[in-house]
């Protein structure tokens, strides 16, 4: 029996599962939240215990790993995590290969999720597709000729940091008007809060205020969608602006890369029809008329990184 | 002797040359301007006479063709020309294969020039590069793993129509603030003219006006660079804005595609140091700090499409 071990270092959660080569069902599955104050060391310790629980004395034939942060795929070294301390230059592939003695492949979560959707989800049968996750950040993964395309230094697909409005607000990366700065959940929440803190406002944000009992620090990306669904005009405005930014980004990617399909995943994609319509409309307007593409929701949900890790491990076995 | 025939349908000029497989020198070379009122029919007739002059009774082993307009590479059918009438849906590959009985490959000029620079020019030894031509239009050609990447429908690489300033002026394509709308020669000339036609101006455009004896209709892209070199502030402003737009476009491409090298060709790249510095600076600021790339001038000059056509024909022979 050829076993594949799939690991997901997700930043706020850790998950691991095993499956048989070619199967679409998990044999065993473990998941837990990262503790408060987690470090690379505690993450690795927790993951080791999940793995030994899963394996029950058996040996996998290959390991695939999804990591929530930039990874040097060639060496399998994590560059850093934006969520957990101590991940700078950790040779994750090397550590796992030493401990378990089997070929291990490590890649960042957007690339892995893209591969998962390609092999098992909304991208099946399409050999050129672009996956975008819109959540705490905006990341992209790109499948070309059936395999992840990582670019010269593993940095391809960074749709989150293409500039769509040079007059827009400043992003963490230092530039103005990046897709991530306008479309990610936390930044939409921040924009709502800053707007409501200003003395005189056009929009009252009534529904949004009531969701957080007027404690503006509690506003989240999800509340923006919830308030928008209740008709809150400020929330609608911010949500549409985020969807517009993502749509311009997708249209520009269509012009440059011309993939067959875009697949969107991540929490913000659950924001509802208004958001989806604006993304579709803006992407279509931004792309040249000769360029065909479809934009679809991801099919694998929260298990996308694990299924992607399975696909990654299988590629390593071929 | 294995002969390669290279053809260049350039819009305003026609050129053809033959070389031996593996050689870097032309055996024979023919070039002429398209007549005023040229059509697809006259272009094809002139090209046929150039070809028969070149061949002198010999038979080539393969034909490579660079066409100045969108081409369906798979079928070798020209979609249209923006410069010459009557090119809609002309099966150029089929016509040439019927007449000369040898394998023929046809692609658009940016893809072909990219391939030429990759094989024989500034991109030698780099298997992932992005070529940009900045001239009457702005086009892109993209080499991935040593071969042109054309995207799902041959539309990849359209850097000219990615939006860099959504509040900018309207482009021919219908969108606002495309790279081409801000960075191409004719559009820079148009912006200068429109500025000088306004009643009250901050910049006098003195040097630019004197280059055309106050006949604003005569302003060209080249004159913008010439006037800028003479210190004309309006010209400097427009040139810098064009270079900025191209720099944002290149930085965005770096974020998405992460190629090793960008190679810039076309008449606007002769605009001087000011232009190059602004392009380099803006591209560097727009790309994420982790992303490495270089931006270099094209090496093959006016013969890039012909040498690219040789490379294209050779790929067809392999």
From TrEMBL, chains A, B:
Identification of the protein by name: ROK family transcriptional regulator
InterPro entries per record: ATPase_NBD (IPR043129), ROK (IPR000600)
Family: Belongs to the ROK (NagC/XylR) family.
Native organism: Nostoc piscinale CENA21
Coiled coil: none
């Amino acid at each position: 029996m050829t076993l594949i071990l799939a690991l997901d270092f997700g930043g706020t959660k850790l998950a691991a599962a095993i499956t048989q080569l070619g199967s679409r069902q998990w044999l065993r599955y473990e998941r837990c939240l990262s503790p408060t104050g987690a470090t690379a060391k505690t993450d690795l310790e927790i993951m080791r215990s999940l793995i030994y629980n899963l394996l029950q004395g058996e040996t996998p034939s290959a390991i695939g790993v999804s990591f929530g942060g930039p990874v040097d795929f060639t060496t399998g070294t994590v560059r850093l995590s934006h969520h957990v301390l101590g991940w700078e230059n950790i040779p994750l592939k090397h550590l796992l290969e030493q401990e378990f003695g089997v070929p291990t492949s490590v890649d960042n979560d957007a690339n892995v999720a893209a591969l998962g959707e390609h092999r098992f989800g909304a991208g099946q049968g399409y050999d050129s597709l672009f996956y975008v996750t819109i959540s705490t950040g905006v990341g992209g993964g790109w499948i070309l000729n059936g395999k992840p395309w990582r670019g010269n230094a593993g940095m391809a697909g960074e749709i989150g940091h293409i500039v769509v409005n040079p007059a827009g607000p400043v992003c963490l990366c230092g530039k103005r008007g990046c897709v991530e700065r306008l479309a990610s959940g936390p930044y939409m929440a921040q924009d709502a809060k800053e707007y409501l803190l200003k003395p005189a406002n056009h929009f009252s944000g009534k529904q949004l205020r009531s969701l957080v009992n007027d404690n503006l620090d509690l506003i989240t990306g999800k509340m923006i969608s919830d308030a928008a669904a209740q008709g809150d005009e400020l929330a609608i405005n911010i949500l549409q602006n985020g969807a517009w930014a993502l749509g311009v980004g997708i249209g520009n990617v269509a012009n440059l890369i011309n993939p067959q399909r875009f697949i969107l995943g991540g929490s913000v994609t659950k924001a509802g029809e208004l958001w989806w319509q604006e993304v579709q409309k803006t992407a279509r307007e931004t792309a040249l008329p000769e360029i065909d593409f479809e934009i679809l929701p991801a099919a694998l949900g929260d298990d996308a990184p694990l299924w992607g890790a399975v696909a990654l491990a299988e590629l390593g076995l071929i």
